[in-house]
Amino acid sequence: MRSDEIRRLFLEFFEKKGHKILPSASLIPEDPQLLFTIAGMVPFKPIFWGKVDPVYTRIATCQKCVRTTDIENVGKTPRHHTFFEMLGNFSFGDYFKEEAIEWAWEFVTQVLKIPEERLWVSVYKDDDEAYEIWRKIGVPSSKILKLGKEDNFWGPAGPTGPCGPDTEIFYDTQRDVPTSDGKEPTPANTEGRFVEIWNLVFTEFYQDENGNLLPLKRKNIDTGAGLERMAAMMQGVYNNFDTDLFAPIIEGICNILNVEYKKDEKIDVSIRVIADHIRALVFLISDGVFPSNEGRGYVLRRILRRAARHGKLLGANAPFLHKLVDFVVNKMGNVYPEIVEKKEFTKEIILGEEKRFLQNLNKGLELVEKVVRENNGKISGEMAFKLYDTYGFPLDILRDLAEENGYVLDEQGFNEHMEKQRLLAKNATGDVEFTKRTGYEDLKLKSEFVGYEKYEEHSKVLAIKVSEFVNEAQDVDCEIVLERTPFYAEKGGQISDTGIIKGENGEFLVEYVYSPTEGIIVHRGKLKGRLSVGEKVYAKIDIEKRKATARNHTATHLLHAALRKVLGTHVRQAGSLVESEKLRFDFTHFNALSVDEIEQVEKMVNNVILEAIDVIVEEKGYDDAVKEGAMALFEEKYGDKVRVVKVGNFSEELCGGTHVKNTGEIGLFKIVSEGSVSAGIRRVEAITGLNSLMYLQRLENNWFKVRKVLEVNDDEVFRRIENMKEEIKKLNSEIKSLKQKMVDIDSIYKNKKVINNVEYIVEKFEGLEVDVLRDLADRLVDKGVDLVVLFDKVGEKVILIVKKKKSNQLLHAGNIAKELSMILGGGGGGRPDFAQAGGKDFGKVQEAIKKLEEILREC
């Protein structure tokens, strides 16, 4: 039985038992305690906790999950995975132990048709109720194990949360393995023969921060059956990696890397690691997790690096993981459409990250080989830390290398160096040396910017400046000048770099960089510890921020060129802001851009990005550069030698900023706003790279919410909205008709008054439609009244309607409305026979009525 059929049969079975079948939730949980969705119950934690009421009391899902707590065992054992699918049925205050146990047994024995003699169960030793239920359905007592809390009591999915006793179903693979006590094999005395295929958790308690168990207000059922294990059982294989879930992926790995599976255990382990990890990478990236140095992004990066490293062990000398994405999508895309939609993007993320890692890996491996040769197969804690700190070489990869090759790795020494670094950063204090406090104009200093080529640099402190004298300087606001610096100083519309400057006894957090005078670059920020003039330091920028900024800066050049091509050569840059999150571009143009023009510009820029054109940077004489067609930008100052940034035949500008090496690095370019700055100056804001992805994901999420609210699919959204508009129009018409009927025109007409032979009516209302007021005024005038003045309260505001008989030449409706509305704190006017006005103060309506009477007496 194939995995797709098992998944389908499980969901169909529980649907027949009254369960609502829900799609898998994201791998990114709405839970601050968890990095990932690690179990089927995670999306329902608030319900289990009793914090929210369930919409459905019975639910069944096939939930995608990620766990990395035992990542070092992946590939080495038959059943360890980072990504896996968890089949589960849940009850929220509905059925409890009896139904959960009976249905699980029914599904396994009658739907999957597993022989009962191949099945065992375990229960919590104090859970007599569960034990008796198993006995009732025919499981012999000899096959029901009573185990302790460490085996059959399910803790919360995090430090706190719902928990309770559980019962497990085991499948006997009948492998010939020794028992620990010499007796008949059971799940308790053997290792590897019996496979747990289903865990039924009876969540009766809530565990608080102190470990106390508190009863839940309603009892719940939480079950989990690993699809990978079920597939192995149904397909008669012992190893999950031999099921149809992995077979096509493993075949792809073998073809791409030209290796054979099941020929050499060492090779097999690497193949299985890659097969497992590529599934995790595809699903994590599709759910919005991207490589980074912290949190989920770090875990993703760690998984990718492990997979790439095992590829290296199999002879891969170039990126290959991105080629495996198709195999995962082909196998699982019919169940999880998000991986189909994000396939190409996933490939790009994996390829880019793998390229960067392989460069560092090659350097690190060469260094490791040299170290172990020179130290008789030993990797010291100091060297391990250097590999980590300098090359980003993860400790777990070093651990794998040591285990596979018999090296000795000093992990304790590594941890000591890590702790030493933390203590230095935390506890270092000391005096700060500084130079003149009046500015930099008279200082004979020269800073060299090396940031075009480098992200980090070893340099020397030339000057330190603080706003006031301190003896023990910790977290001191100050400024530092270096001999050489990779930090870009803010200019030309591009924001400055941020990052760190490290000395032997101090660390400086760089928050802003500027150049107060030619040749001097000043780093402003906070110093923790001790730095001195003349001290050797290590400076490193925030690389991801720089790269994001560079993407936006190059995109600004492409945008400028595209605007000139679409709108005309009159377009010139009139200002810009380039930062990591977005770009802002001001340009000369007199009209708002149409939707079609914006789409043309976007398409043109993205075509250049997709062509992956090298960005060429050259230094030339100013006159030569301008003659060649390079554009000199808004209010920039240029010397005799200028820096020219060229993108094929599409764009060429003079620019001192930082840029990508190739347009393909920019990613998706998306205009997010267009508007006016001043007469003749327009402004466009746009995003690139991952910011574009997040923007589109927000749109997608909003679109999903719209569809969910409207309860329709994509194709029916606009039709549904049009129908709703028609319904609203119809309802408004009915409301208007009802309001008109509510107005007793005959009664109002009887209240007419006369001043100076002018018949007039004044009435006050609250909450009538303007159209109703106008219709009422028309009807009263048609009945012969000379003048109708109507006031309507809308919140605290006032609507004023003035209507007069056309034959009356003494009155002017527009003039009357103007005078009355001034009293009401508003304004307005209109034609001689009709006017509409407004005001802010309904409390002055009576005063306005008195004014009206004065006007009539004077006419």
Annotation keywords:
859 residues, 32 strands, 38% helix
Can you put this structure into words, describing what you see?
The chain has 24 helices and 32 strands. Mean pLDDT is 87; it is low at 425-438 and 469-473.
In short:
This protein has 859 residues and is an alpha+beta fold.
Please estimate the helix content.
25-40%
Into which percentage range does the β-strand content fall? 25-35%
Outline the low-pLDDT stretches: 425-438, 469-473
Radius of gyration from the alpha-carbon trace, in angstroms: 37 Å
Number of strands: 32
End-to-end separation:
97 Å
Number of H- or I-type helical stretches: 24
Main sheet overview: 9 strands, mixed
- How would you sum up the global shape? globular
Question: What is the mean pLDDT?
Answer: 87
Structural class: alpha+beta
